[in-house]
Specification:
The structure holds two protein chains of two kinds.
Chain A (H helix, E strand, L loop, with lengths): L2 H19 L3 E3 L2 E3 L5 H12 L10 H18 L5 E2 L1 H26 L10 H20 L10 H10 L1 H36 L1 H16 L2 H12 L3 H23 L5 H9 L4 H35 L9 H10 L3 H29 L4 H4 L4
Antiparallel strand pairs in A: 1-2, 1-3
Helix pairs in contact in A: 1-2, 1-4, 2-3, 3-4, 4-5, 6-14, 7-8, 7-10, 7-12, 8-10, 9-10, 10-12, 12-14, 13-14
Chain B lengths: L8 E14 L2 E14 L3 E5 L6 H8 L7 E6 L4 H6 L3 E4 L11 H11 L4 H14 L15 H13 L5 E5 L7 H18 L2 E6 L2 H7 L2 E6 L4 E7 L14 H17 L7
Parallel strand pairs in B: 3-7, 3-8, 5-6, 6-7
Antiparallel strand pairs in B: 1-2, 1-4, 8-9
Helix pairs in contact in B: 3-4, 3-5, 4-5, 7-8
Classes of the chains: A mainly alpha, B alpha/beta.
Chain lengths: 371, 267
């Protein structure tokens, strides 16, 4: 074990040892000793026992089990606990330290090739769970008002209760406004870029116009689109079209110019016309730029559609739900909706990125080679 | 080489001139260049940078427009010759498309020129065999060495059977050993295919080793200072470069370069 790991392990055992001697929490009837919570007590004892690692090697899994035991014990106390005392917070810290020791040791073992690097996926998972446990413990143990920050469990139960609503919102906002607006905006941007590239006349006219439209504030356009296209999803799709059009236009225009002079001369020596040159040389060369725009737009589109729903919408949609639930101070539902948006946005981006890797496999940035 | 009639002349230039208008004023890249390339010739153009050797090749290829004189390629204007796909051009860099495999790169001109699938497969196999790249069909350019990439680009220029091959310092970026090897390979290929080759270089041994005719050029303005008909035999092993005959030609090329190159004018 390295110095960092030894220090962390000693500190974790020490903090867990303190849990055994300080008051754990309180109810109206008085303080609650550690003996009321056998799981936590067991964790603390085992944690102190883990000090034997300085004499005999302890397997990596032991730290993960200790961290999990501490976290489970901590969460189990929440229903009976009315006021968290020092023991509660020390348990949180100790459990977190064990998770840290585990991550350090696993990363070290992978670097030394002692363990397959596939196991490394555990590190971000442990990190994510640690964040959730800490969030749950702080919001419930610390009695943080729900309006400020609801607990993950509250968000999750709100999520489960409202699945039909969330699905309806997802369909309305993501499957209609976002995907249709994204396809149209990126499609138009691409076609106009090819046209602009063909004609200097259009370049002088349309590029500044596209720039102008993209500079319009979203909250200014959205109400106007509602006036033009009605309350339902077409007005949101229109906002998404406006937001995604310009990044695609600019990136494609730039991408169409990256094919080298020599490659263009080569096409000329074959007496290749405009279309063969475009399809066989300039578009493939532009692909990395086009995918950049597709990735930028995948997140822009979701933001645009959600914000646009703040300006008039039927009673369904992610943006509508967020604005109406926050009005009812039902913050847990707002967070559930945010979770859906985050998951959908990340998945969308991820799909575009996967396609990008498949299409631009040849680009030095993807294959990790030199140009 | 026997002196052929008019029909045996592939490229004929008369008083050719080309002036570029640049921000620093006019640059005379070519001045009064008169030259014939006959069918089956291997002509090298040698000279320092700025002597117009590449420009001349680009004029033949219709990639630059001359501003004076006249030039014909296969009896046609360069533009007409280009539209008839009458030459293959090999650039200083391989200029292979990284998203295409080697065979797909060779197929590029064939696709553009509308060859059938069967014909394409046949020609890809034949030309890759010609440049010794059999077995690398499915590789991507970035998986091959620089020398192999340049051979693939030569295969691409040969694929559509143009009789004229224009090569602009094709081996300039390669190291000496690879270059020697490719030079020997190129001579074999030339003997097998009976192509007419115009070859730009700034290496004297390379020019003398490869050519039946060496055109020595000099800069400011770009012009021809000497045309040397090689007396070396058609069969040329690499060690021919140590024979007195070879050295005599190399000496004459060097003299031509020295005479044309006035260092006083360079700043």
């Amino acid at each position: 074990m390295s110095l960092v790991q030894r220090t962390l392990a000693a500190l974790a055992a020490l903090v867990a040892g303190l849990v055994l001697v300080v008051p754990f929490g309180a109810t109206e009837g008085g303080t609650l000793p550690i003996t009321e919570f056998p799981l936590v007590a067991g964790f603390a004892l085992l944690a102190v026992l883990s000090l034997v690692r300085f004499r005999w090697a302890l397997r990596i899994e032991a730290d993960l089990i200790l961290a999990a035991l501490g976290a489970a014990g901590l969460l189990a106390t929440l229903p009976t606990l009315e006021q968290a005392g020092p023991g509660f917070w020390l348990t949180l810290v100790a459990s977190w330290l064990f998770a840290w020791v585990f991550a350090e040791r696993l990363a070290g073992a992978i670097t030394r090739k002692g363990i397959s690097s596939r196991v490394g996926v555990l590190i971000p998972i442990v990190f994510g769970i640690t964040i959730l446990v800490a969030w749950e413990a702080v919001t419930r143990g610390g009695q943080v008002p729900k309006v400020l920050l609801p607990s993950p469990s509250g968000i999750f139960s709100s999520f489960i209760e409202n699945i039909p609503k969330l699905i309806a919102d997802f369909q309305q906002t993501f499957l209609k406004s976002v995907l249709i607006g994204y396809a149209l905006g990126c499609g138009f941007g691409f076609i106009v870029a090819v046209a602009i590239d063909r004609s200097p006349f259009l370049k002088r006219g349309l590029l500044p116009l596209g720039n102008f439209v993209s500079a319009l504030p979203l909250i200014g356009i959205a109400p106007i689109m509602v006036m033009w296209f009605g309350f339902d999803w077409p007005s949101k799709a229109a906002v998404v079209v406006i937001m995604t059009f310009f990044p695609m236009l600019v990136n494609t225009v730039a991408g169409l110019n990256v094919a080298g002079r020599m490659e263009r001369d080569l096409m000329q020596t074959y007496a290749a016309g405009y279309w063969p040159s475009l399809i066989k040389l300039r578009l493939p060369a532009a692909a990395p730029f086009i995918f950049n725009a597709l990735k930028i737009n995948s997140t822009l589109a979701l933001i645009g559609a959600i914000v646009a729903e703040f300006f008039g919408t039927p009673i369904v949609g992610m943006g509508f739900r967020i604005s109406s639930e926050i009005g009812k101070l039902n913050v847990e539902m707002v967070w559930a909706e945010i979770a859906v948006a985050a998951l959908a946005g990340s998945a969308f981006y991820w799909v575009v990125a996967i396609v990008e890797r498949a299409v631009t496999f040849w680009h030095p940035s993807v294959r990790g080679g030199r140009a | 080489m026997t002196d052929g009639g008019k029909s045996h002349t592939v490229v004929e230039a008369q008083g050719l001139g080309l002036t570029f208008n640049t921000a620093d004023g006019d640059v005379e890249a070519l001045s009064n260049v008169s030259l014939d390339i006959r069918r089956g010739d291997f002509v090298s153009f040698i000279g320092p940078s700025g002597c117009g050797k590449t420009t001349f090749l680009r004029v033949i290829a219709d990639l630059e427009q001359p501003t004076a004189g006249r030039i014909t390629v296969n009896g046609l204007s360069p533009a007409e010759a280009r539209m008839q796909r009458s030459y293959g051009y090999v650039f200083q860099a391989p200029a292979l498309f990284p998203w295409r495999t080697i065979e797909k790169n060779v197929a590029l001109p064939l696709e553009i020129m509308g060859y059938s699938d069967a014909e394409r497969r046949d020609r890809i196999a034949r030309t890759l065999d010609l440049v010794n790249l059999k077995g690398f069909e499915k590789k991507f350019p970035w998986q091959l060495s620089g020398g192999m990439q340049q051979r693939a680009s030569i295969a691409r220029a040969l694929a559509f059977d143009a009789d004229l091959l224009l090569m602009d310092e094709p081996f300039g970026a390669l190291d000496e050993i690879v270059r020697d090897y490719l030079n020997a390979e190129l001579l074999k290929l030339w003997a097998r295919t009976k192509k007419t080759i115009a070859f730009v270089t700034h290496s004297i041994p390379e020019a003398v080793y490869l050519s039946t005719k060496i055109v020595v050029m000099s800069p400011r303005p770009g012009r021809v200072t000497d045309i040397i008909e090689s007396t070396l035999p058609a069969e040329r092993p690499l060690d021919i470069r140590e024979t007195p005959e070879f050295l005599a030609i190399a000496h004459r090329v060097r003299e031509g370069l020295r005479a044309g190159h006035s260092y006083e004018h360079t700043e």
